[in-house]
């Protein structure tokens, strides 16, 4: 990506964690492109930059304010990594124009610690992935053998930047860190290793979100090297990891119930909310 900004969608989103979406919805802004190339990506079309409309910093700030006027609980920057300078400028501009909402950095966890450090005073909530503790898996599935090391460094800075979790009287997060882990089929050990590291390192300083919604896509069929990813996570697999974090002593956690491994949970990236009304 160059210095232009491309957005795929800007709208209220009801399917984030309860303390992010709440009853009003999270004001999600989906940026095009991604700094990872996960073979199982759930947002494949935008991650590869195949969808998106160009906007200016001024228009991005307007979008934040429009989402606030729609009743959003927060402004949720989804995969903003490669646009973070422009996104930060837009946040500061929008605040001068009346933005009062918390700003969420919703990323892959594969971040430079220096970038995270410089977001102090701009980002209120980090909603971050922690995908792998196994470098062989991160190399195979995301072409990033250094992912575990980078994610650890970035997470440390995230906790330093926003501090302890803070909630309002309605239970909505105002400050804090939520660490997401998407359980992959056949990889309970990796999930348990991530959960163990996060809890042993940060305890109640962070919230954990253990996700069972992995959805297999047809594009992986016919690729024997990824055959293990061509099915959903079983209830038994997921429950085993849930039981593990309970045994660890984790209390600050979100888990998923029911059948959430559906493409219907993936929003349409049709440019909604990007163009001026």
Break the fold down into its secondary structure elements and pairings.
Elements lengths: L4 E9 L4 H4 L4 E6 L12 H4 L5 E3 L1 H13 L5 E4 L5 H13 L6 E5 L5 H5 L7 E5 L5 H8 L4 H16 L3 E2 L5 E10 L5 H15 L4 E5 L23 H14 L4 E3 L22
Helix pairs in contact: 3-4, 8-9
What does this structure look like?
By secondary structure, the chain is α/β, with parallel strands linked by helices. The protein is built from nine helices and ten strands. It has helices spanning 18-21, 44-47, 57-69, 84-96, 113-117, 135-142, 147-162, 188-202, 235-248; strands spanning 5-13, 26-31, 53-55, 75-78, 103-107, 125-129, 166-167, 173-182, 207-211, 253-255. Strands 1, 2, 3, 4, 5, 6, 7, 8, 9 and 10 form a ten-stranded mixed beta sheet that branches. Strand 7 (166-167) and strand 8 form a beta hairpin. The longest helix is centred in the middle third of the chain and has 16 residues, at 147-162.
Overall residue-averaged pLDDT value = 94
- Termini gap: 27 Å
Structural class: alpha/beta
Order of helices and strands: EHEHEHEHEHEHHEEHEHE
Question: What spatial form do the alpha-carbon principal axes imply?
Answer: globular
What is the overall number of helices? 9
Stretches where pLDDT falls below 50 for ≥5 residues? Answer: none
Portion of residues in beta strands equals 15-25%
In terms of quaternary structure, the protein is: single chain
Number of strands: 10
Helix content: 25-40%
What's the gyration radius in Å?
A: 18 Å
Largest sheet: 10 strands, mixed
